[in-house]
Amino acid sequence: MEENEKRLVDLVADMEEDDALACAREMLDSGVNPLRVLDLCRTAMDIVGKRFEQGEYFLPELILAGEVLDQIGAMAKPLIIQTSDKPAVKLPKVLIGTVHGDLHDIGKNIVTFMLDINGFEVKDIGIDVPVARFIEEIKEFKPQIVALSGFLTLAFDSMKETIEAITAAGLRDQLKIQIGGGQIDETIRAYTGADGFGLNAVDAVTFSRKWTGDFSHA
User: Fold this and answer.
1) 210 and 138 housed in the same domain
2) Burial code of 171-182, b = ≥16 C-beta within 10 A, e = fewer?
């Protein structure tokens, strides 16, 4: 990680809002890939999440960090759009939401944006979404892909519970489920029963594109 990249991670993680925004703007203006800037923010949010779970940070810090990332995302999005060729035809539907018990929409908002500009029809149902709401939305929206977001480790159990409920409702076979958020890996994917996991928004798009062929004859 280069010095300016580490500086951005540290500023976001340490809640230095003004300096973090200035650093992000400087990097974007100098031609750094906006997706790289967002990925650095994700790294910083992993640190924030760990500090929260260790009792060093509390809810106000999480909210502030989310606001900082939203502002950096707002800087990066126009640059991402400039370099993206948005398909004329909408790809499969994606239902996305943050699972119950988790109030974070940081990564979810970026994933929603990236899926949208890549041609997917996305419905974002927000944060702290109860299991029953996911079931209702799947029946109504009829997505081919469901994306479950969660930033804190407590979200892993909520993801597992949500996926089990989708299965119990007889809806599992007609869709793919991917999870994303904080410290998610293959072990967590297997634990929750998801089809895939993503460390960032690009992974989410990659999975969704890969799965698109599964629905081409539906």
Assistant:
1) yes
2) bbeebbbbbbbb
Instruction: List, as one string, the DSSP characters of 89-148.
Output: S-EEEEEEEEBTT----HHHHHHHHHHHHTTEEEEE--SSB-HHHHHHHHHHH--SEEEE
DSSP β-ladder status, 120-124 and 91-98: parallel
For residues 131 and 67, state if they share a domain.
no
76-125 pLDDT, tens digit each: 988 888 876 666 566 889 999 999 998 888 778 888 888 988 889 999 99
pTM of the complete model: 0.77
Range of the domain at 12: 3-82
Strands (E), the chain: 91-98, 120-124, 145-150, 176-181, 196-198
CB atoms < 10 A from the CB of 213, how many? Answer: 8
44: CATH? 1.10.1240.10
On whether the CB atoms of residues 188 and 65 are closer than 8 A, the answer is no
State how far the Cα of 149 lies from the Cα of 106, in Å rounded to an integer. Answer: 9
Mean pLDDT split into 10-residue runs, the chain, 218 residues:
91 95 96 90 86 89 86 89 67 94 83 86 95 98 96 91 98 95 89 93 88 59
Q: Which residue has the tokens 């634990």?
A: 191
Pair 104, 181: CB distance under 8 Å? yes
